[in-house]
Each structure stands twice: as structure tokens, then as C-alpha cells.
Design goal:
By secondary structure, the chain is α+β, with helices and mostly antiparallel strands. The protein has one domain. It is 16% helix and 21% strand. The protein is built from two helices and six strands. The longest helix is centred in the last third of the chain and has 13 residues. The protein starts with 21 loop residues before the first strand and ends in a 5-residue tail after the last helix.
């Protein structure tokens, strides 16, 4: 079913019109409850953190892309709230999504520490720069 562009809609969507009470994850295929603690517009799986490109603006469900979105990073908002950054595997667009209270803490930490675990330079370089390794 083709979705109307956001500008063509005559009224904002109500919670009931946004979609089903649950949906199947595009990545891990788990059944996901649409209700989520800490956010009103769940569009990522709490088990694997993958999403689907369904929104143009949070909660509008107006995107026609519908490709899977990989969780690639974490950012932290003022006040300490963690936010997932997803990259669409279809169009490459980046989206931020609030984390929910039932998201996998282990996967959130794995994404958050990824830049430290896989730096873009050899770790030995740090030792040489700090003078702790012989030249």
C-alpha cells in the first residue's frame, strides 16, 4: 500500500491510525509491541535495535522507503538521554531514535563502545605518542 506524502494528509494521524499494536522486526523477526516505555513512536526492535524506514518526521509513518535501518551509533542528548542513530540500508538517510526502557542494554553498550573497540588507527600508535613504547 502506498503511503500519502505528509503534505497531502488532511489531518494528523491519531495513535490508532499509525499502525498495528505489534509488528515483526525486519532484522531478527521478533514480534515487537508497538507500545514502548520512554517513547511514543517506537520504530525499532528492543531485541536487536534495528528499525525500518517508516517515518519522515517522528511518528508520521509517511516514508515510502520502508528499507531496514541499521543501528550504527549512540549519541547522548543534553540531560543524558541516549539516542540511537540508524542508517537506512535503502536510501542511506540517517535518523535518530529515542531509546526505550525495554531496549537491550547489552546491545546499546556494544554500539556505544564500538568506536573505542575499533578505532580508525592502530592502538600501538597511542603507546608511541604517550612514550610508553620504545620507538
Amino acid at each position: 500500500m502506498s503511503r500519502q506524502p505528509r503534505a497531502a494528509r488532511s489531518r494528523p494521524l491519531t495513535r490508532d491510525a499509525r499502525g498495528p499494536a505489534s509488528w515483526r522486526c525486519v532484522h531478527c523477526h521478533a514480534e515487537v509491541d508497538a507500545a514502548a516505555p520512554g517513547t511514543e513512536h517506537r520504530n525499532h526492535c528492543p531485541h536487536c535495535l534495528w528499525s525500518r524506514h517508516v517515518d519522515i518526521e517522528p511518528g508520521d509513518r509517511a516514508s515510502d522507503c520502508l528499507a531496514s535501518m541499521e543501528p550504527i551509533a549512540i549519541t547522548v542528548r543534553k540531560g543524558g538521554e541516549w539516542v540511537l542513530i540508524h542508517r537506512c540500508n535503502g536510501c542511506g538517510e540517517l535518523h535518530t531514535n529515542r531509546t526505550a526502557g525495554d531496549d537491550s542494554p547489552l546491545l546499546l553498550l556494544q554500539i556505544a563502545i564500538r568506536p573505542l573497540a575499533q578505532p580508525p588507527f592502530p592502538l600501538e600508535l597511542l603507546g608511541r605518542m604517550l612514550g610508553s613504547e620504545p620507538s
